[in-house]
Amino acid sequence: MEEPPREPGGTLLIWDYDWSLINANSDTYVVEVLRPELMARFSSRTTGWTELMDSQVKELFARGVTRSELEAVVAQVPVLPGCLQAVAVANAAQARQVVLSDANTIFIEAFLKKEGLRRCFSDIISNKAEFDGEGRLHIKPFHAEPPGCALCPSNLCKGQVLRQLLDREGPSRICYVGDGSGDFCPACQLRPEDLLLCRAPPSPPLKRFGLLDRLTDPPSASQVVAKVVKWHTGASEPLDSSPDAA
Ligand SMILES: [Mg+2]
Ligand SMILES: [Zn+2]
Prior knowledge:
Strand content: 15-25%
CATH class of one domain: Alpha Beta
CATH superfamily of one domain: HAD superfamily/HAD-like
Shape: globular
Low-confidence stretches: 238-246
Number of strands: 8
Radius of gyration: 18 Å
Bound molecules: magnesium ion, zinc ion
CATH architecture of one domain: 3-Layer(aba) Sandwich
């Protein structure tokens, strides 16, 4: 986010990560594969998610999980192949692409490198993760100061980031790909000329879609002025376009 402004215009493709670019929650996936006994901590959490995830990777390290093991597992998360093909197609069409995610930078970088897709993205915008000298991962909130957004967790307001991207990049069109309730705040920042690609059923293994829920609830749906298009697998499929997403 510290780069100088780019040439304005063109399409900016913004990808949510969990359940959008990949077909999993990367945080729970890594814990379930490596030390499933830690899974119960997700349902009994008393802190924010990012704080809990920092504690989960601390526990993984305490239980002998090495850096290379962790990176290998996060890199092999389940995907929808159509979404990865869409990244390659957008890259060939010279669209600028960023990942905007409430996961963390290390998990996303490890995955993109394994898929050979890192060069397709100009930015990975997520909670900051870093290995220390001993090989333990630390995860910190994206925002140093909570932005105080009523729609978002204190560690990351995707809407605020989207506004900064609009100022910095001046795209003539944004395509935003998302699935969850955390994608609603940035969806509200999109303009009428932008496109909101919203995951919708049938799209296994998910049954509930937090973003779609907000878009089918009239008071919150009215806050989104972008064109809404539902997606299911990421593959070339007849796009199900409906302004009210009903
Ligand atoms: Mg998501
Ligand atoms: Zn927000």
